[in-house]
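Incident log, support desk, overnight shift.

02:14 A customer reports that sequence design results differ from what the structure should imply. Their input is reproduced verbatim below. On-call engineer (initials T.W.) acknowledged and began investigating.
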């Protein structure tokens, strides 16, 4: 009976922690939607096409901690997660143009209650397989009954074309024993380069129209 109560309390603590991440996602989404509304009024267009959010599952969180070599102890599990996993809460922002990605991300991190923890720019520095996206780890305030706490959220910015490539790449390769791995990787990289050229040309066309 004692063990059951102990596990129940651990589960409640975990759910409480996950609720903080859920609230942090809502905070960032609200800020992005406000920026979207202001941007729309000023430039007569929207800086992003869509926002998607997700919370890592408990299984995925534990698997990642184990894979990285962290010991899992109930008494300090929350601290271990908060200090070592930056992508428990994730938001993906899909924009039409690369310029809008940088403009929107700059406006977001300029807000005085947001702290930028880390940036990985895979647009200017693509991964070897061709993956492109702007990743930012932000720390945002969440106001709960116990008071204010800061929670990390990973925000990924992509163009529509980058999101298409990443989605298809994931569907083709995720957890599959792929034959001719090197050939397929090279062909996907060529596709990524072609998509980048398309992104750049669409940006140039937009600039010509707005000029």
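02:41 Re-run completed on a clean worker. Output:
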């Amino acid at each position: 009976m004692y063990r059951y109560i102990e596990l129940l309390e651990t589960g409640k603590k975990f759910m409480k922690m996950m609720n903080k991440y859920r609230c942090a996602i809502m905070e960032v989404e609200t800020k992005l939607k406000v920026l979207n509304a202001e941007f729309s009024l000023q430039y007569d267009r929207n800086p992003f096409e869509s926002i998607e959010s997700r919370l890592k599952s408990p299984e995925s969180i534990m698997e990642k901690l184990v894979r990285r070599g962290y010991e899992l102890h109930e008494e300090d599990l929350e601290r271990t997660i908060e200090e070592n996993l930056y992508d428990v809460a994730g938001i993906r922002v899909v924009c039409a143009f690369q310029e809008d990605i940088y403009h929107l991300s700059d406006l977001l991190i300029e807000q005085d209650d947001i702290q930028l923890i880390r940036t990985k720019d895979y647009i200017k520095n693509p991964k070897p397989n061709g993956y492109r996206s702007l990743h930012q780890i932000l720390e945002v305030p969440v106001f709960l009954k116990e008071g204010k706490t800061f929670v990390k959220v990973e925000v990924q910015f992509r163009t529509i074309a980058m999101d298409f490539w990443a989605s298809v790449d994931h569907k083709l390769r995720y957890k599959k024993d792929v034959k001719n791995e090197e050939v397929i990787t090279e062909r996907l990289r060529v596709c990524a380069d072609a998509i980048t050229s398309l992104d750049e040309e669409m940006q140039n066309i937009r600039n010509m129209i707005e000029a």
